[in-house]
Give the backbone structure.
Amino acid sequence: MKRIATIQDISCFGKCSITVALPVISAMGVECAIVPTTVLSTHTAGFTGYTVRDISDELIPIAEHWKKENIALDTLYTGYLANAEQIDSTKKFIELTKNDKTMIFVDPAMADNGKLYPGFSADFPSKMLELVKIADVVCPNITEACLLLGKEFKDEGEYDEAYIRSLVDGFAALGIKETVITGVKYGDGRHGAVAYDKESGEYRYLFGENQDCYFHGTGDLFSSVLCGALTKGEDICSATQKAVDFTIACIKQTLPDKANHPYGVKFEECLHLICKE
Ligand code: PXL
């Protein structure tokens, strides 16, 4: 059985980060160890007055204990991190717990729709870039890719394939082996992700049907499926297609229930789609 350790926050309510990664990765038949960095009453997008407790001073003691126990990790998967200090601790955690075969998977979850999430200052992306640079695989959305690479953000309808290609090339130039750009929508109804494998030079579009709506937490669902499938040994194209298909299935499952829309997608009712055969 493969083993992933994921380093991100616990948002007690709101279906994102660890509360998504743990069930999704487990359903895929991969062990998911968790390293919580912050406990929040809810996520920060759309709720106000949420509570926040930083518990990242536990990261290094946890890593040192795991090292002593010789806990071998196939993948280290990082998601939302709340501040620059957590990025420093996460880098140290990775350094202490990885071995030569561990895949470093970084979802630089910090922004969407052209804007940083609440609470991040403008210099946060340059700090996140330090983590991205040590990754084997990254899966930013277009906003995150632009902020990390210092490129101009273009909204849906304003970009073409050459623009998306320039983002992928930016990550390849940093030495990252596999890049997946999420949330790519072309005007012809194609909506999905672009995957690039530096070694083979293969560059592919993996599209699904466009769903004209926004749900919080779908980025975390996407990256959890992608990370789980890559850890199981799937190639980047089939792993990305699996993540696209699952995310769309979860959105479709939720669409008819309008009252529930602010509370994320009903991924629980779709887990059977990714269950280990
Ligand atoms: O889904 C990313 C995410 C994770 N965790 C917290 C968040 C967000 C996005 O806003 O606020 C706490």
About this structure: The chain has eight helices and eleven strands. The CA atoms of residues 23 and 49 lie 27 Å apart. The chain has a mean pLDDT of 95. Helices lie at 18-27, 59-68, 84-97, 124-132, 142-149, 161-173, 218-231, 236-254.
